[in-house]
DNA sequence: ATGTGC
């Protein structure tokens, strides 16, 4: 169904802007935000997945591709696609992906950098003990069925209600820490049970807990508003919905593959979809929201354990939350399409929402700066804190989520010896703790794009502005 | 991403 065999070439529209005009089954164009260098490393599979997304029923405006995009399951990672609410629109479980609600939370501390440098090994060991990580990392908390149901409905607010955080944390979290409309009844028993021993665990893959230092400030006013200063110590948590979100995705991808509407063959089994108005579509929406809440509660719980660990080591320290934002979501939003305000269901996979100052959906807390955008780098490289800018109107109010993979996990394993990576990180002054040096190699810097170039590109297009660059000092990995 | 594939 998708125009795979046609010779598709993005047309250069402006500096760092490219467009794929509709051909074959494509209903809308694809708008790519990338430099020449970044577009040259996007493989044919990524381009194919973008044009496939642009071929789905009810797709609105254009499909957006971020500078960090690479191929994924169904949609590429780094893709934004909105679908009209109502009869013609669809929702796709593969479009959101397996790690529902995966995102980044950044906390700010008042601990002098010199003290962190002096006690780096001790801090790394304490965090590694306190925060379960890796595929088998199991939680210190054990949850019963009622608690799991509450978490799926309440998100981070559940953790705060149970003494794991402050209400200020929720103000500094997307959706105030709770996605409305979640329904645990649409989440299978198996998916719910998988949370039993997993709340407050980091997971594996590119998930991490990093202690970082603010390396440079690029927007003094926004940095002051965010509470950021040069040489400040920050904490970033990159994690998701663990087994629960994965199981929700598995369940609904299967169900959508088995229940495709008549006359609407899926372009690809990984991109099976359901009409938004169908029972299955509505059920997935409610289950996906529960998955987002699971991820929000997970990061809130991890943040609480990190705070407890730091308070033991630095009893007088103060740790506040800058922001928490997910980058694997489907969200109901209003967008202006061809001059008309439309209600859309916007899938963001490996892309964050980016509301500029003055946008009606942005709360008062960040109206002066625009919504914070947390860009996680690869292990051992920098992260960026950006704020959404006016140009985000052209990206359906979205920005990039990271550096983006350059090599597949298998390719990375071939090119990176685990031992030499550990040595290189140590040499770079980064204290790494991991349960699996083998999996660590898959996350080696050589497997990722240059986060500074990706960030430069995103900001050059006007979708976001640089606020601060963060450099890792301690990294806890699965 | 994932109690790692059907």
Automatic annotation (TrEMBL):
One of its GO terms (biological process) is RNA processing. Mn(2+) 1 binds at residues 99, 207. Its EC number is 6.5.1.-. GMP binds at residues 206-210, 327-328, 376-379, 383, 401-404, 477. It is an enzyme of class 6 (ligase). The active site is at 401 (gmp-histidine intermediate). The keyword Ligase applies. Belongs to the RtcB family. Monomer. This is tRNA-splicing ligase RtcB. It comes from Oleidesulfovibrio alaskensis (strain ATCC BAA-1058 / DSM 17464 / G20). The gene is rtcB.
């Amino acid at each position: 169904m998708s125009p795979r065999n046609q010779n598709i070439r993005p047309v250069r529209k402006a500096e760092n802007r490219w467009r794929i005009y509709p051909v074959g089954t494509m209903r809308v164009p694809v708008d790519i935000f990338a430099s020449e260098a970044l577009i040259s490393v996007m493989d044919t599979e990524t381009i194919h997945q973008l044009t496939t997304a642009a071929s789905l029923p009810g797709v609105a405006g254009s499909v957006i591709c971020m500078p960090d995009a690479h191929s994924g399951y169904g949609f590429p990672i780094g893709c934004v696609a909105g679908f009209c609410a109502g009869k013609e629109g669809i929702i796709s479980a593969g479009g959101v992906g397996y790690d529902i609600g995966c995102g980044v939370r950044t906390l700010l501390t008042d601990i002098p950098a010199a003290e962190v440098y002096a006690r780096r090994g001790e801090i790394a060991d304490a965090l590694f003990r306190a925060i379960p990580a890796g595929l088998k990392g199991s939680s210190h908390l054990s949850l019963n069925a009622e608690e799991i149901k509450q978490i799926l409905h309440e998100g981070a607010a559940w953790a705060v209600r149970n003494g794991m955080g402050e209400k200020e944390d929720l103000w500094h979290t997307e959706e105030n820490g709770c996605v409305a409309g979640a329904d645990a009844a649409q989440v299978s028993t198996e998916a719910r049970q998988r949370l039993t021993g997993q709340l407050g665990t980091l997971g594996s893959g590119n998930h991490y807990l990093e202690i970082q230092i603010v390396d440079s400030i690029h927007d003094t006013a926004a940095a002051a508003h965010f509470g950021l200063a040069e040489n400040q110590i920050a904490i970033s948590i990159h994690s998701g919905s663990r087994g629960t979100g994965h199981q929700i995705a598995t369940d609904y991808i299967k169900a959508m593959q088995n229940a495709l509407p008549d006359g609407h063959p899926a372009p690809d089994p990984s991109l099976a979809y359901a009409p938004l108005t169908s029972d299955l579509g509505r059920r997935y929406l409610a289950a996906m929201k529960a998955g987002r809440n699971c991820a929000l509660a997970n990061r809130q719980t991890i943040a609480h354990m990190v705070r407890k660990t730091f308070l033991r080591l630095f009893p007088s320290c103060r740790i506040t939350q800058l922001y928490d934002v997910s980058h694997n979501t489907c969200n109901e939003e209003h967008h202006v399409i061809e001059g008309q305000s439309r209600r859309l269901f916007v899938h963001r996979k490996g892309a964050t929402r980016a509301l500029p100052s003055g946008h009606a959906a942005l709360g008062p807390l960040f109206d002066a700066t625009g919504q914070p955008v947390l860009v996680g780098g690869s292990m051992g490289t920098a992260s960026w804190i950006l704020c959404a800018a006016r140009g985000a109107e052209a990206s359906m109010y979205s920005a990039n989520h990271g550096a983006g993979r350059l090599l597949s996990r298998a390719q990375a394993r071939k090119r990176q010896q685990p031992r030499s990576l550990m040595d290189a990180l140590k040499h770079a002054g980064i204290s790494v703790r991991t349960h699996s040096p083998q999996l660590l190699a898959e996350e080696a810097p050589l497997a990722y794009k240059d986060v500074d170039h990706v960030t430069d590109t995103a900001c050059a297009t006007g979708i976001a502005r640089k606020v601060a660059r963060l450099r890792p000092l301690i990294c806890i990995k699965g």
